[in-house]
Amino acid sequence: MAPRPHWLFGDQLGPHFIDPRHGGPDARAPLIMIEARSVLRRRRFHRAKAHLVLSAMRHRAAELGDRVTYVRAETYAEGLERALGHPSSRSAQEGRSGSRLTVCHPTSRRALDFARTREGVEVLPAKGFMVSHDDFAGWAGRGGGQGLRLEGFYRWVRGRHDLLMDGDEPVGGRWNLDHDNREPPPRGQDTLDVRRPWQPREDAIDEEVRHDLDRWERDGDVSFVGRDGPRRFPATRREALSALRHFITHRLPDFGSQEDAMLAADPVMSHSLLSAPLNLGLLDPAECVERAERAHRAGDAPLNSVEGFVRQIAGWREYVWHLYWHFGEDYRHRNALRHTTPLPDWFLDLDADAVTANCLSTVLAQVRDTGWTHHIPRLMVLGSRALQDGWDPAAVTDWFHRCFVDGYDWVMLPNVVGMSQYADGGLMTTKPYTSGGAYIHRMSDLCGPCAYRPTDRTGDRACPYTAGYWAFLHRHRDRLAANHRMARAVKGLDRLADLPELLDTTARRGGTPP
After folding, report:
1. Torsion over CA of 394, 396, 401 and 402, rounded to 10 degrees?
2. What span, in angstroms and rounded, lies between the C-alpha atoms of 59 and 304?
């Protein structure tokens, strides 16, 4: 009996998504891929993100050859109808009753709902993650969840997958080496002394994608933000493996100590740049952390670097994926702080030149030019600005989704609503993550050339982050005073003799670029 066709979404591009083991599709199943223009019309995506996704999809289709039916359609519904009318798909359905098509569990609720409501579509278990939905539900329901905090989940994953373990104990005797990984950047250096990141070479498929995007934009079919090119992230499995090998060999040893630091001329620092290929499904998370662990056990990378990398992938990435499903659809509408200010046009348009604050201008330019920054600029520069100014968390989530090459609904919803904007009121994190300019000054070289001073709360040189931090605490004083991690900071408001002037300054600034 001929196998049913299998549908591959654009973030299911690695070999593990068509592996028949562990609930995958039949090894002989014909494959379907759909490039739906409506996805690009729904949102104003970053141009580099649109390029990367389309390039990766078209590269994968070229690799699969005659096995795949690749349809360019207006919508997924239209694409499925056309694909299932293809001769190979029709023959694969002969003699079958019930489901006519399989698909691995999609990564967004919208896509999952679409698949489940289509007649004849069977949704197979999710792939591309280390922890299954059932296993996460078991952990969360056993009381081991400890309020669903990351640390408990991370230790459970480490033990379950025997990652950086010596028997029942963590390698080196400590689970968490964050304290060792918070060093500021080296003073007097514009860049770190590490090998530069792996860089792909564009090919004819990239040229075709860029031509199509130019034409669609010129015709008014779609609209983008940001700049495109040259492509910086892997679009094929071969490229992704090259990027992983390069990072493990040349960059992982220096990753840990300054993973929270920022340098204006070195936006990548020692970070892996593997989030994009991971989220496209080109890499499997298990192979990434296992290679990192092997490097440590071989003496090629220090424990703090390896533990920090493992924590990002086996800890945070898995945690965010499962919270996306665990919290339910209503989570995206959470707004515990009642922030409703619309995002300003200069932020929506990535207009870095309109911004005076050097940290924000620099990071916004990085997003404009590459569609990427590492986690600290995302959280403590971009997210902190949104939180301090009271921007609508749903709009902030959408912005991060659209403007980052590694941004997907499952990625950004918990990261923004829970971590960055504290819009869930503490379901995910124990406190809001924002700070004054002193933190940015300590962890970067961004404050030196700035027109503002990180120590100034008022006056012409008042740092928008320092003033914004105290204004934020004042605005939410009653709520935050009851938070044991914020109570001391809130009491500091009573020592600010210039608080009225500070509040007046921030109110007058309004939505103008800081």
Report:
1. 110
2. 36
C-beta neighbour count of 138 within 10 angstroms: 13
- What digits encode the pLDDT tens for the residues 177-226? 988 889 999 999 999 999 999 999 999 999 999 999 999 999 999 999 99
C-beta separation of 222 from 216 below 8 A: yes
Work out the mean pLDDT of the chain and round it to a whole number: 94
Q: What are the structure tokens assigned to 51, written together? A: 């390029």
8 Å CB contact between 159 and 168 = yes
In Å, what is the CA distance from 294 to each residue of 138, 272, 310, 350? Answer: 29, 17, 12, 40
- C-beta pairs of 462-466 under 8 Å, 24+ apart in sequence: 462/502, 462/505, 463/357, 463/436, 463/437, 464/357, 464/360, 464/385, 464/388, 464/506, 464/509, 464/514, 465/357, 465/359, 465/384, 465/385, 465/388, 465/435, 465/436, 465/437, 465/440, 466/436, 466/437, 466/438
CA distance 127 to 150: 21
Asked if 16 contacts 23 with a C-beta cutoff of 8 angstroms, the reply is: no
- Number of Cβ atoms within 10 Å of the Cβ of 180: 16
Q: Which domains does the chain have, with CATH numbers?
A: 6-124 (3.40.50.620), 133-224+234-327 (1.25.40.80), 333-509 (1.10.579.10)
- Residue 412 belongs to what H/E stretch? helix 409-412
CA-wise closest residue to 12 among 413, 410, 371, 367: 410
pLDDT tens-digit series, residues 130-141: 999 999 999 998
Q: Are 242 and 198 in contact (CB under 8 A)?
A: yes
* Angstrom distances, CA of residue 114 to CA of 105, 194, 511: 11, 45, 38
Q: Which two tokens stand for residue 249?
A: 């060999």
Residues 246-272: tens digit of each pLDDT: 999 999 999 999 999 999 999 999 999
pLDDT tens digits along 476-511? 999 999 999 999 999 999 999 999 999 998 988 877
With a cut of 80, say whether residue 151 has pLDDT above it. yes
Rg (CA), the chain: 24
String of b and e for 313-340 (b: at least 16 CB within 10 Å)? bbbbbbbbbbbbbbbeeebbebbbbebe
Tokens standing for 488?
A: 């001391």
Structure tokens at 344: 């300003």
